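Troubleshooting log. The previous structure file for this entry was overwritten by mistake, so regenerating from the original sequence record. Sequence copied from the archived sheet and checked twice against the printout by T.R.
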Amino acid sequence: MLCCICKEREATVHYTKIAEGKMQKVDVCEDCYKTKGASDPAAFSLADLLLGLGASQELEQSAGGGELKCPRCGFTQADFKKTGRLGCAGCYQTFSEGLEVLLKSMHKGTRHTGKVPENLRHGRELSEHMKNLQRKLAKAITEENFELAAQLRDEINNAASRLKNPAAT
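Regenerated output below.
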C-alpha cells in the first residue's frame, strides 16, 4: 500500500480515526510520518493528513499571519484544522486563497463539473441531433429541396424511434 501523501513509498504507519460512527483511515510512509510532524501528537492533526497535509499552514499563510474568521458562521482556521470541514458556504469565500491551493492539489480543478449518467447523456445527444435535423428539414422545405427533405424526415423518424426505445440501438 502506497503512502497517501507522497504516493511513492510503502506506507508503514496507519492511522484510523473513528468519530461519530464514521471511520477514516490514512496510511503514510516513515519519512512523511517524521517530516510532517505526525510523530508529535500535539502538532499532528488527522484533518491535515486527510486534506493533503499542510492545509492549515496554507490557510494561515494566505491570512498573512492573522487568524481568519468567517463573518457568517464564526468558523476559524483552528476549527477547520480540527474538523477538516468548513462551517458554511461563506467559509469558502473567507478561506478561498488557501482552499484554492488545497483543492487543486486534491482534485483536477476547483470547479465541480459532476458526471452525467450514460443513458441520460446518450438521450441528450440524440435529442440535440434531432433538433439539428429538424432545422435542416425546415431549411430544405423552404428551399424546395424535397429529396433532401425526405431523407431528413426518415432520419428524424429513425432518431425518434431510438429516443423512445433506447434498448433497440
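The first helix runs from residue 30 to 35. Archived copy saved in two places this time.
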